[in-house]
Protein 1
Amino acid sequence: MTTLGDLPRQTVARGDQLRRIFLKSGLLAVTLLPLIAHPSDIKNAPLRLRIVGGLAGANQFPRQEEPFWQKTLPALSRGQITTEIVPFDKAGIRTHEMLRLMQLGVVPFGTMLMGGILSADPELAALDLAGMNPNMAALRRSVAAFRPHLEQTMRERHGIEVLAIYAYPAQVTFCSRSFTGLADLAGRRVRISNPSQADLIRPFGAVPIQSEFSAVVSGMRSGNVDCAITGAMSGNAIGLQEVASHLHTSATTWGLSVFGANLGAWTALPPDMKSLIKTELPKLEAAIWADSERQTDEGVACNTGRGSCLTGKTGLMKEVQTNAVDESKLRISFRDSVLPAWVQRCGNTCVPVWNRLLAPVTGIRAETQATRP
């Protein structure tokens, strides 16, 4: 497990800063609210959980996460659990900070985007490398194969109990001008959310520009980016269909995220409450995955104005469907660019992990890389 002394000084300082913000806003920690003064009755006091959830602008938060924590779980606990939840980007947390802040206990219960873990622990981010899972069926196979290792490593290396794995809708490519296939990415500035996506598009001649989800529309409107990789429906929710004209619907990544608890905060919960959460969170996870699959299809329908669009805003984008040429090029890019770059970040000790767990489901083996001088 990483300790406070192992963390970079700036990370600790950032943790202290956010701890002060959270304390001031009432968004920090797990607290017992003793409604009865006698110590023997504290065990009957309601438990108040403070949760940092997923992206504010994506449908997953208002449709799934927020109702679960604020309504479903309190009702199932018969009032023994009360909760407050805030999206991590509304809490002032940057994507890559969540893992460290959970290790520090600044965020006791939180949602980490897998892409944000890539720089801190590339081994765990292997589950959602760009170009690895072209469809939901492939994604489910990858998660099933890797999940036990993810849970064990998170617990032992980072002091975090993994409680659920969520999937956002497929991350697709929005472009602001004519686009017929991946070869058209050459020379274009493309918004990406993590380094793995950059590794996937560089072989096509694209220029990766990393930015937060909240800055996607303004970046395209200002011309700072020509294309943007983000969720089909989440892009619709923030209005990308109003500034982009073409939509390439091949999935780059799925925006996997891990919901977990600081091990100290988790251990402190009463056994019956831990059991309830462990029983109910898989139901939330299943609902999020099913909704993600629906939203991927609906996102395309809404953005293009073709098909059923029940929850989004209708656009007039032109759909660019993946073809055999693009599929072949994506697989080559994953094999020759994405996977080797991951090994370089992770180290050759990660090669056996990939080959044991994920090579059987992807059909692509990792190779040992020459050590950089």
Note: The first helix runs from residue 9 to 25.
Protein 2
Amino acid sequence: MNNSIINIVYCTDSNYFEHVGVSITSIILNNKHHNIHFHVFLYDVSEEEKNKLQQISSSITLYSIPIDELNKYSDIQNNKIKHINRSMYIRLSVPRLLPDYVNKFIYLDADILCFGNISPILNINIDSVVCAVTPDSLDANNMLQNKERLNLASEKYFNSGFLYINTQNWKKFDTENKANQILLSPQNFNLLYPDQDALNIVLQDQVTYIDVKWNYLFTWMNDQEKESFFHNKQSLPYFVHFTGARKIWYQEHTGIAQNIYCFYKHFTPWCNQSLKSYKNKMRSVDYRIYAKQFLKKGKIIQAIKHYITYLIKLFGIK
């Protein structure tokens, strides 16, 4: 098979399906002269929505996930992170389920947008590792906390929203089964981010770290940087990963990042669908963050209202 093909994989359900379409579109528009094939593993998605995705490009293959692949994860509860769902576990089985000709591929979360030519990925050598990864933090103290929490030998801790995977090495190392053993007996481990933690435990000496430009996290930026960051095309990363629960596709989260998301969305079959509200997903911490943002903007009354709601929710006041 032609080595110049870049294979990219997503795993999703109906909640994130539209966002996968926007992510794919951002890659296509920035890589018009490259041979890229998209593999989308999905469940709980209507035929109508599937047809929309396939309108974007003829280079998209859809794979329906058998329900028994998911049922084994149904008992895993994570009360700390409400915006994570079972589709994140599918990535563990992708190397087993992909066609044999796909010897290397990029796995991406749905909340990632592309900002440039990604062909340099073909120059990254992953022949002797399971995958290439990027750090989850730019702060050494954060890395150390994760090392201690999970009792890692490695000084580093990676973010699993971007993985450049050697398919055969993943299977030879039995990565899927090793990660599942951890996920299905979580009482033995201090897991905050289930599949990411499990992969860090399993693969700690089987990865190579590459430039953060392959997976630059939005949560690394302060409010000012979230506006200025996107103006300098020369310094833009290959991928920006819009981490955190308050996604740019919610109407309340205005700013240049949302404008960019809407620009790419404009070229998809979902272009006429308006952005959804975040209100029904609000957690106590969100009210605190909104209170702080309103205060910075001088909107004192809204800030006070949101902070009071935060305290009520935090302490369970009736």
Note: The chain is about 35% helix and 15% strand.
